[in-house]
Design brief:
- The protein is of the alpha/beta class.
- It has 2 domains: about 5-100, Double Stranded RNA Binding Domain; about 120-220, Arc Repressor Mutant, subunit A, CATH 1.10.10.
- Helices cover about 40% and strands about 15% of the residues.
- The chain has 9 helices and 6 strands; from the N terminus they run ααβββαβααβααβαα.
- Helix 8 runs antiparallel to helix 9 (about 210-220).
Length: about 230
């Protein structure tokens, strides 16, 4: 992205109110004239700030803070289109559904997704993951067999590590063969917190805010993972 595109696409809290209003108006006009290729917003969740991005075809990217939101937006500009704009209204429904998930009012997501960033076997894995329902887990090897490629546990791990839509496409439900969580694109602490959120009876409310804060504190000292180890 050039300097002007960064100004228009940059996070709203980095600019004064006048620039925020300008960006909002620009996003509306761009959408009216079919010029908004990628809309994005951020959402504060118990596991940190999450970036949501969508194309006209559907939700295309979900990213945790540890992945670097600026880097993710730059990649979207390169992979899809430089016309990336902060347009939170386009993603209000996705944000509400995420809120419902963390409040334990929602067990799945009713969102159209755009999987253009996934290809081949990785896409096949992602398309199968929604079948692993809320509160369930499956091992990397079991998922490989279900996708029709027994013995491809490591490839399943790579697909999960490259998942462009974590949370929405639930790669956190894929665990090691011994039942331990294994790696996760958002970090192992967040993976454990999500699994406990889904598996703990409703009467035992989780302090996800504390768990998420602990996870984010731990992750500050770590490098971004290269992948998930099945």
């Amino acid at each position: 992205m050039n300097h002007l595109e960064r100004l228009l696409a940059g996070p709203p809290n980095a600019a004064d109110p006048a620039v925020q209003r300008f960006r909002a108006a620009l996003a509306i006009r761009a959408q009216e004239h079919d010029l908004l290729d990628v809309a994005y917003r951020t959402v504060d969740t118990p596991v940190g700030q999450v970036l949501l991005a969508a194309t006209p075809a559907g939700l295309v990217r979900v990213a945790y803070a540890r992945q670097g939101h600026d880097a993710v937006l730059t990649a979207l500009a390169s992979q899809i289109s430089p016309r990336v704009l902060f347009a939170p209204r386009r993603l209000d429904d996705a944000a509400r559904q995420l809120d419902g998930y963390f409040a334990r009012d929602r067990r799945d997501f009713d969102l159209t997704v755009d999987l253009r960033l996934a290809h081949g076997f990785r896409r096949a894995v992602l398309e199968h993951l929604p079948d692993v329902g809320y509160g369930r887990t499956v091992s990397y090897g079991e998922l490989a067999a279900e996708v029709g490629n027994p013995g491809a546990a490591r490839a399943v791990g790579s697909a999960c590590a490259a998942n462009p839509l974590p949370l929405i496409i639930p790669c956190h439900r894929v665990v090691l063969s011994d039942g331990s969580p294994g790696g996760y694109i958002g970090g192992p602490e967040i993976k454990r917190a999500l699994l406990e959120l889904e598996q703990t009876p409703p009467a035992l409310r989780l302090d996800l805010t504390r768990r998420g804060a602990d996870a984010l504190t731990t992750q500050r000292a770590r490098h971004q993972p290269r992948g998930e180890n099945p």
